[in-house]
């Protein structure tokens, strides 16, 4: 199982939210580059970098931080938040992202999103499927939709998508365990999907549960920042 720590950014700082609520913002470090270097020193190879300002604004904002992390570490960075246009995408790639995650655009402008697959290939484009009560949410989780999670993923899989980050918003930042049953159902329906669990991981036991269902990858955020899981603990998962 691939271990992917997360850095969420507001105002260029490393923060975490609870259930996507911007009013619950907690700053963990003024310098995300410092955090990224810490992850790399701990043997981590992947990083999930989220521009929360961008998600709210509807366009990329914290691209300078992305560029700093990409140039000062060797981490494989996937970047998301505010990627609404091909121009946003080009900025992300020019600043060093090796993959990008599109969420809101996949709902609101599927034609544009699918054009990214054609131009960059499915290895570099990740679908951000964020859901509340089984329904997709967009715009930094501020806006609900009537789209059901599994059919939404299946539709894009049929069109060539192979990588999905699936966040259960009700679990995010709560440290009370991930949506194991939800991920099991998705993998049962689409066995070849590179599915990334996101939200709720609070202990090593949670990670073992995900391993038990053959989860391909997991994003971990608050559990690391709150010292529930150490980089030493994660070494067993990192080759």
SSE map:
Elements: E1 2-10, E2 13-18, E3 21-29, H1 32-41, E4 46-51, H2 52-57, H3 63-72, E5 76-80, H4 86-94, E6 99-102, H5 104-108, H6 110-120, E7 125-132, E8 135-138, E9 143-148, H7 149-158, E10 163-168, H8 180-189, E11 194-198, H9 204-212, E12 217-220, H10 222-225, H11 231-234
Parallel strand pairs: 1-4, 1-12, 4-5, 5-6, 6-7, 7-10, 10-11, 11-12
Antiparallel strand pairs: 1-2, 2-3, 7-8, 8-9
Summarize this entry quickly:
This protein has 239 residues and is an alpha/beta fold.
Question: Could you describe the 3D structure shown?
Answer:
With 239 residues, this protein is an alpha/beta fold. Helix content is 37%, strand content 30%. The chain is built from eleven helices and twelve strands. It has an eight-stranded parallel β-barrel with strand order 1-4-5-6-7-10-11-12, surrounded by six helices. The longest helix has 11 residues, at 110-120. It is globular, with a radius of gyration of 16 Å. The model has no long low-confidence stretch (mean pLDDT 94).
